[in-house]
Amino acid sequence: MDKIKLITDLGAAIARHRADHRLSAVDVAARAGRSRTVLHKLEHGQDVTVSSLLAILGAMGLCIALEKAGMPTLADMQRRFAEDAFDGEDNSMGDVSGNTGSHADAPGGEHAA
Prior knowledge:
43% of the residues lie in helices and 0% in strands. The protein has helices at 7-20, 25-32, 36-43, 50-59, 74-82.
C-alpha cells in the first residue's frame, strides 16, 4: 500500500476500500453517525473534522497508524502545488528577460536583442 501524504490520497484510499469491500456509502455513514455528504467530502479529498474521519474509519473497520513520512517525491510535490496553480493566468515559463522562446517575437523570426 502506498503511503498517504495528501488528503486526496486518503480520500481515494477510503473510497477504494469501500468499493472493494462492497460497503454502501449510506451504510458506512449511518454506522459512523455522519451524513453521506461528510463521507462524500472525505472520499473526494475535501476537509472534514478529525472526529468524522475517525468515525468513518471505525465504521469501515479501519484505523490510522503513524509512521515516518520521509522526503516527498517529485510526484507528491507536483500534485501538492498543482492545487495552488494560478487559475486563468498564462503560466508559460520564459527566461529572465521575459522571452518565452517563440521565434515569432521579432521580425525575421529571430529574437529581439
